[in-house]
Amino acid sequence: MQVILRPAAAADIEDAISWYERQRRDLGGEFLEAVNAALKVIAQKPRLAPLAQRQTHRFLLRRFPYAIYYRIEGDLVLVWRACTGAAARGGGARVVDRAGRVVERGRLMP
Question: Rounded to two decimals, what is the model's pTM?
Answer without folding.
Answer: 0.77
